[in-house]
Amino acid sequence: MGGLTGAARAQQAGDTLSVPCPSPRLLRQCVDFDATRALDSKAGPQTFIWNLGDGTVLKGLKVSYCYKELKNYLVTLDVQNNRTKVIRRAEKTYAVALADQDILDFSQSATQVHVGDPVTFEAPVAVLPTCENVQLIWDYRDGLQGRGRKVTHSFRKPGTFAVRLSLRAYGPGTCPNSHCVSREVIVVP
Fold first, then answer.
1. What is the dihedral of CA 60, 63, 68, 72, to 10 degrees?
2. Which of 12, 68, 106, 143 has the CB geometry, 3.0–4.6 Å to 123, for a possible disulfide?
3. Tens of pLDDT, residues 89-116
4. 103 vs 2, more confident
5. Which residue intervals of 19-77 are DSSP H helices?
6. H-run or E-run covering 119
7. CA 123/CA 113 separation, integer angstroms
8. What is the pLDDT of residues 129-174, one digit of tens each?
9. pTM above 0.85, yes or no
10. CB neighbours (10 Å) of residue 27?
């Protein structure tokens, strides 16, 4: 599966200062499939039929597809022998778990502002799906913090600030304590 950029690092609960936070993790909705291992040279020419779990069917040895919804899908690969027309159903199956992925992303109303101008930060889709009690904590990197899915902040001095969004959760079981991502805001006089 491809399309994933960035990687969030776990940090200790309550820690917003010591661990560097990477750029936001983008939604992984596009997937690559490769049936090279299913090739049977003795069978002659074959057609590879991918049933992508959302009603879409693609043909080819290798296919790429971008899902429209963040759900979990079961993909099946049928292989047809072109000479005999016999189809081997569900030669391979693949689980595509888009609904179970951590989404660590946020937007900002501006990347460069003047001192005192408000900047709005929003994280409408940020989620740790295996966790409960998730809190969104913003560290503006100027000594102030905020909480919630949407916040507005005005910087009091010029500089470049790597604003952090921390998703903190407290269970159950294997739920990570916290993840963070950051984006820069340049503040000019």
1. 100
2. 106
3. 988 898 988 877 777 889 999 999 999 9
4. 103
5. none
6. strand 118-122
7. 20
8. 778 788 899 999 999 999 999 999 999 999 999 999 988 877 666 6
9. no
10. 16
Dist CA 25 CA 6 (whole Å): 5
Contacts by residues 86-93 (CB-CB < 8 Å, ≥ 24 positions apart): 87/49, 91/38, 92/35, 92/38
As a three-state string, the secondary structure of the chain is: CCCCCCCCEECCCCCCCCCCCCCCCCCCCEEEEECHHHCCHHHCCEEEEEECCCCCEEECCEEEEECCCCCEEEEEEEEEECCCCCEEEEEEEEEEECCCCCECCCEECCCEEECCCEEEEECCCCECCCCCCCEEEEECCCCCEEECCEEEEECCCCEEEEEEEEEECCCCCCCCCEEEEEEEEEEEC
What does the chain come to in residues? 189
Return d(Cα 118, Cα 171) in angstroms, integer: 34
